[in-house]
């Protein structure tokens, strides 16, 4: 029982450190994640896959609006 209690305390301490790191670097991490996601969607995915996924004019216009002016450096 004591071992379980010790493990729980250590786990909670680790979570607190993780939350503190997220608070400190959350904006930077979010910006980097968004950049990577946009690069993947707008630059890395083959045209055929985009056409299959965004198969209607309405969806394709949303894709074009999202990726039209995107200039991303990998």
Give a quick rundown of the structure:
The protein is mostly helical and 74 residues long. The protein contains three helices and no strands.
Structural overview:
The chain has 74 residues and is an all-alpha fold. It has one domain. It contains 3 helices and no strands. The chain has helices spanning 2-44, 47-53, 57-67. The N and C termini lie far apart (50 Å).
Q: Average pLDDT, to the nearest integer? A: 77
- What distance lies between the first and last C-alpha atoms, to the nearest angstrom? 50 Å
Count of runs of 4 or more consecutive helical residues? 3
Structural class: mainly alpha
The largest pleated sheet is described as:
none
Name the poorly predicted regions. none
Oligomeric assembly: single chain
- The proportion of residues forming helix, as a percent range, comes to over 70%
Roughly what fraction of the amino acids lie in strands?
under 5%
In sequence order, what are the helices and strands, one letter per element?
A: HHH
Number of beta-strand segments: 0
């Amino acid at each position: 029982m004591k071992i379980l209690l010790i493990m729980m305390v250590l786990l909670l301490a680790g979570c607190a450190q993780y939350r503190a790191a997220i608070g400190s670097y959350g904006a930077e991490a979010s910006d980097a994640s968004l950049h990577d996601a946009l690069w993947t969607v707008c630059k890395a995915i083959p045209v055929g896959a985009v056409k299959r996924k965004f198969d209607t004019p309405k969806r394709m216009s949303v894709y074009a609006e999202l990726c039209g002016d995107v200039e991303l450096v990998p």
